Amino acid sequence: MATQPRWEAIDTVLLDMDGTLLDLRFDNYFWLELVPERYAARHGLTLERTREVLRPMFAARQGTLDWYCTDFWTRELELDIAGMKREMREHVRFLPGAEEFLRALRDKSVRIALVTNAHHDSLKVKATQTGLLNYFDVVFSSHSFGVPKEHASFWQQLEAALGFDPQRTLFVDDSHSVLRAAQAHGIAHIFAISKPDSAMAKREVTDFLSVEQVSHLLDELAK
User: Fold this and answer.
1) If DSSP states are collapsed to H, E and C, what string results for 119-147?
2) How far apart are CA 188 and CA 156, in angstroms?
3) What predicted TM-score, i.e. pTM, was given to this entire model?
């Protein structure tokens, strides 16, 4: 397992949004409860039948850009996904400790970049609701690069656009497939979030250094 770095070894901090800074409870509710309910009503199905229909549709798109695209799911499901997110925006919240961490980062000599798979529609709703983007120097959505963070090409394009040194970069995410892609690109300092949904139990993380919430990094990296 990698040695934990000190802040002096870090020039750039790359942060995921959903499940790292914002509570994944919103997304889990949206996709596992609200979307099936609206789809059932739209197509005259029971909830049980709806879940049978949606399960393979979702599984087939995981890890692809379509999985994160509101336009794609609006077409596939015949639901206004972006509109539904705006409708439910008051349920979007920071994870515990996230704002504390972001405020503390502003006092450190590092560049802070948001790197998210979220579609621009979703990013706009969440940023407007929380003021999240006020804490960042720059924001990158994988939709601008044409590939999700799970793909090597994303990290190649991100490095070209941002000009970061992978050996002096910290990256935090809740997705292990994304973290593996970042690790393969050579990013030296990687942490997983073990409690991305405040309503669910802490996950067991064995492949990466982990913290329950990002604010714990303030202590971890100061040791």
Assistant:
1) CHHHHHHHHHHHCHHHHCCEEEEHHHCCC
2) 15
3) 0.94
